[in-house]
Amino acid sequence: MLDSVAPDLTMSTPLVEARGVRFGYDRHPVLYDVDLAVAPGEFVALVGPNGSGKSTLLKLLLGRLEPWEGSVHLFGSVPSQVRDHGRLGYVPQRPSLASEVPATVEEIVSAGRLAEGRWWRPFRRADRDAVRHALESVDLAELARRPLNELSGGQQQRAFIARAFASEPALLVLDEPIAGVDAESQRRFRDALVHSIREHGAGVLLVSHELSAVAQDVDRIVVLKGSVQFDGPPAELASTGVSLGIHAEDLPLWLEELR
Amino acid sequence: MTALTLPYPFDPLYMQRALLACVAVGVFAPLIGTYLVQKRLSLIGDGIGHVAFAGVGAGLLIGVAPIWTALVFAVVGALGVEWLRGRRRASGDVALAILFYSGIALGVVLLSLGDGLNAGVLTYLFGQPLTVRRDEVITILLIGGAIAATMVLLRRPLFSVVTDEDWSRVAGLPVDRLNTLLAVITAAAVVGAMRIVGILLVAAMMVLPVATAQLVARSFRGTLSVAVGVGVGSSIAGLALSAVVGLAPGGTIVLLAAGAFAVTAVVRRAVARAPVRGNV
């Protein structure tokens, strides 16, 4: 399915790239000399203990913060200059979704089409098709008309992933999306990610503590603790040992299994 | 404008003007209210209403139609709240409190410079659809039409911003501009409705029909429809009841909207307790 990759997105031009990034809050540095890149079709997992700067790095990559030093490029430009936001599919950590008023899964996922840029134009057939495809790819098509707040935690999380899929993104960024979700939901989550990589040639950057479900599919693991402690294939991380100064429980069984 | 042949109590012309204005309020107040409730800003209509009160005071003092001065004050006040919220200078409810009290104090001071609290002021505080003039009805319809058109055209981006502001920012939506637009529409709705239900009850028409709709609707779109239905229904019934029995129309309309919520809540609870087949 690699022929479905857009021609300009070769492996040599990363979808997102941080180079020598230094950043902190109130003169207190949090990230030192961080390099990170995700290429098309690549599945990268970002791990690290709490306070390691994962969330800060994501904000820098998404253009919500500006680095003190170094550079960040999203689709080859400075993040704040990116015009086609639909190329980025974002799944927030704890969606700040207010559920005062009932909203259906379909209504939430349809919002994903707004990211494509011309948010004021009316919905067309292509939009409806994309929403349906996104719902099918996370196995939620049958629950499309159900209110989101009636769904389980795992189903809700897949709805937010479908919202990210709806703009047919070239890069998916997921911030701890499977925390507290059961094994069956994690399997479906993994299938959805693999689908977007294989069928759409998307690059994936997954921030997560819990990688059991995707351990076999991840191309590279980046261990962050202020700076990048490790960047390479999971098998290599397993063989170099867990002596990276990270709490033992942060690199749990899924890593042992790769030995 | 000549009277149409409508059944009692809507036969006289003044009742038909009142009916037109009440139905308009019943449509546009719950429309904007659904977005405000979703944004957890249910009481913002009340805060903006108090600033509109200062505008009424200014209009009466300088001899300009109060609806226009109220509109200017309300829009400036709404933008002020958005600015305070956006810059995180004050939390949502503190920003509202600052607006609320400054507005009412300014209104009282402006009125004291003029004739004080006369019958004209009470019309805006408590509403009075029965004395609404032709030009006022036209203004209310224009405001309502503009609100409804905006809500229909921009319903998707506005929905996204009120449900998930952080995601909307990452998705490249102009979140700040859409929030500003929502604030301006809220101000317009407050001013459009104040002559009918009164400044003190404007927020009720933005919130009560939505609260009822939340109990029964299962989608955002459905919530909008049910809320408008409840808004229009309580407006028509409230106006008729107040004319027949001789009650204050604004208060009657809002009491019926509150009654609709109470009845819906009780019925829903009874239905939920009853054993339902296949409800897994």
CATH class of chain A: Alpha Beta
Please identify the structural class of chain A as seen in this structure. alpha/beta
Q: In which range does the helix fraction of chain A lie?
A: 25-40%
Sketch the topology of chain A as an H/E string, one letter per element. Answer: EEEHEEHHHEHEEEHH
Largest sheet of chain A: 6 strands, mixed
Distance between the termini of chain B: 57 Å
Order of helices and strands of chain B: HHHHHHHHHHHH
Strand content of chain A: 15-25%
| CATH fold node name of chain B | ABC transporter involved in vitamin B12 uptake, BtuC
Overall mean pLDDT of chain B stands at: 91
CATH architecture type of chain A: 3-Layer(aba) Sandwich
When the domains of chain A are counted, the total is 1
Most extensive interface, residues per chain?
A-B, 34 and 34 residues
Main structural class of chain B: mainly alpha
**Poorly predicted spans of chain A:** 1-10, 243-249
By CATH reckoning, the class of chain B would read Mainly Alpha
Classify the fold: give the CATH topology of chain A.
Rossmann fold
Distance separating the two termini of chain A: 30 Å
Rg of chain B (CA only):
19 Å
Task: Please tally the helical runs of chain B, counting DSSP H or I stretches of 4 or more residues.
Answer: 12
